[in-house]
From TrEMBL:
<dbReference type="Pfam" id="PF12706">
    <property type="entry name" value="Lactamase_B_2"/>
</dbReference>
<feature type="domain" description="Metallo-beta-lactamase">
    <location>
        <begin position="34"/>
        <end position="201"/>
    </location>
</feature>
<dbReference type="InterPro" id="IPR001279">
    <property type="entry name" value="Metallo-B-lactamas"/>
</dbReference>
<dbReference type="InterPro" id="IPR036866">
    <property type="entry name" value="RibonucZ/Hydroxyglut_hydro"/>
</dbReference>
<protein>
    <recommendedName>
        <fullName>Metallo-beta-lactamase domain-containing protein</fullName>
    </recommendedName>
</protein>
<dbReference type="GO" id="GO:0042781">
    <property type="term" value="F:3'-tRNA processing endoribonuclease activity"/>
</dbReference>
Amino acid sequence: MSASLTILGTAGGGPIPHRAKSGLLLRVDDRLSLIDCGGGIYQRFVDSGHDFNALDRVFISHTHPDHMSDLPVIVQAIYLTGRSTPFEIYVPEEFTEPCRNLLSSTYLFPDRFPCPLKIIGYGDRFTFRRDFELTAIANSHLAKFRTRETGTGMVRGECFSFAFSLAGKWVLYSSDIGSLDDLIPHWDGCECVILEAAHIDWSRFWVEAKVACVGEFIITHFLSEAQAFQIQQNARAHDISNLQTAHDGMTKSF
Ligand SMILES: [Zn+2]
């Protein structure tokens, strides 16, 4: 088995030139899956020469636009390829119906799609086992919305990190988190932790990274280029050698 992981986009929520928003591309042999698809991920996928017929599914960590705004245009691309094999969209449970409505509002009707288009709600510790293994780990990024009436029916404040195994190596993708407490219990033993920089208590991170049993930290989802540069400087200052900052298209093979 040959597997790889490509960080298609590395920008945080704000505007940063030349970086797309959050999105990971997982390849196992010749089959592809996406985790998150913020703005620019569709174009990164196309520019990389990948075929939408090889893309089997997308997992959405949470519904902030910088993690899922390209979903409709990806579904549209799948429609236009005339695909016949199923395409799966894994979403936080509370977004299952709103996702169906969102796609229908763009005239991409899930029930009248040329191929089976499955919108699958998942929750904490949902485990996917097929060409690779993936487990969803609930985090507290949107916890403040659990007590707030949003008027959308989405009252659970669901956001998930993902642990997944490629060719026997475990990778942990933080997505946005509430605090490092969401992540630290899960990172020991991982070959790679892909850490989104936007919500990190850095003074704590440097202490925890020192004692973590993690092969490598790859930092992404930057607020600015200056932040990416500062993280590199701070890693050196704290004598952390197993950390690098990501760029769009960074690929790790397994
Ligand atoms: Zn977010």
